[in-house]
Amino acid sequence: MAGISSLGVGSGIFSADLVDQLVNAERQPAELRLNRREGEAQAKISAFGALRSALEAMKSPLEALAEPEGLKALSATSSNESTAAVSVDSAVASRGSYSVNVTQLAQAQSLASGVFADSDSTTVGEGTMTFTVNGVSTDITVDSSNNTLQGLADSINDANAGLSAGVVDTGSGFRLVLSADDTGLQNAIQVSVTDADGNNADMAGLSQFAFDGAASNLAETVAAKDALLEVNGIAVSRPTNSIEGVVAGVTFDVAAIGSTNISVERDADAVAERVREFVDKYNELEKVIGKYAGFNSVSGSGGMLTGDSTIRNMERDIRAGLTTIPAGLETSSVRSLADLGIKTDPATGKLEFDDAIFKEKLEADPAAVTAIFAGQSGGEGISDKISQSIESYVGSDGLFSTRTEGLNKTLDQIRDQRDRLDIRMQSYRERLVSQFTAADSLISQLNSTGNYVSQQLAAIAPQPSSRNS
After folding, report:
1. Of 89, 194, 383, 423, which residue has the fewest beta carbons closer than 10 angstroms?
2. Minimal CA–CA distance to 162: which of 176, 183, 141, 146?
3. pLDDT one-digit tens code per residue, 383-436
4. Would you call 95 helix, strand, or coil by DSSP?
5. Residue ranges of domains in the chain
6. How many other CB atoms sit within 10 Å of the CB of residue 119?
7. Which residue has the higher pLDDT, 13 or 442?
8. Strand (E) positions, 196-249?
9. Distance between CA 280 and CA 353 in Å, rounded?
10. The whole model's pTM is what?
């Protein structure tokens, strides 16, 4: 009897579709369980990622407040900025007022040669020119390759000797012009020559470019000058018009002769803004915690991480930092964030910031306010304390990394279980096909046998006789 090549051919009962239905029915409970576990693990990884981002966002404002300079923002103003503008480095400067009287601006020296008929064909001599600027000397060799005005200018510019050179067309001839790169007497230009004609001081050959005290064969068109000013009546000179180092952390940028009054004051608004940034980042963290670990008492439902011990401990550690009283402030009138107008809303867990109170306390006792955030005498302020707590959770070996690694291992296990399920379902399918094929063959044989018996019975059954009429 011919074999059955497809399920159901012999019996019409067993089919590939029936096998698929049975296999799917067997697979579904295990697959749903794996899907649920995988979804939960991925959701928790995502939640820990969001919490990590919120915690790391707090680090920047905390780092700014962990340094005394972070609470020492200063602003500076000039009553006459056309005479002198002012900038301030809060890390170095202190409060103060300064009267500034500018009597002279710094200038860069310029020198000019005599007049030549052209710039690129008339020879100017050969030998060596030595340029000295601010104590640094640079030699330039002049020969047949560069012994014109333009050749000299190009060689000087290529030498990086602290000055630049150019050729000016006056309309009645050409002049070599030398200009110091920087202002001030210390950057005045000296030019000495070793002239091929043997005379280093006359007005022939390279000697006509000498300007070194022994010979002044160039014309000084702009004199080198230092900036001169008086700060609170004290005479000051600098080689540039950017006056640094007279008052620590304060720079005067003088632009014209005249007087101005400079005021350096604490910028309470800037300090308050730094504190507000910290408050805002903390509140963003609370929002993320509420999303993933909060509990809705009305609906009776919680987030993916509700009740998670890691999250509970993180909240506890950070809130402990918020209520810290730094060492040395136990008896101070300003000793905690609450005294600075930073309080926790018990309904939401978020911080509320009253910047008016903060600025009042900052003005009254800046040292205590600084100590609250940055600590004092080696003691730890709240910024460092909270930063350390954050690092214990988001650091490379922190608790969030440990939890995330565990969840990723769970996903690996789920993938392994899916592979084993696929193997088991394939084996189950093969077993069903084998059983159904055998049953289909048996039914086909029974059907064939039944048909044969029916045919034999029909053959031996008496036939009705015919009568001749």
Report:
1. 423
2. 183
3. 999 999 999 999 989 999 999 999 999 999 999 999 999 999 999 888 888 887
4. coil
5. 33-69+269-401, 74-106+226-266, 110-222
6. 19
7. 442
8. 219-222, 227-231, 234-238, 242-247
9. 9
10. 0.64
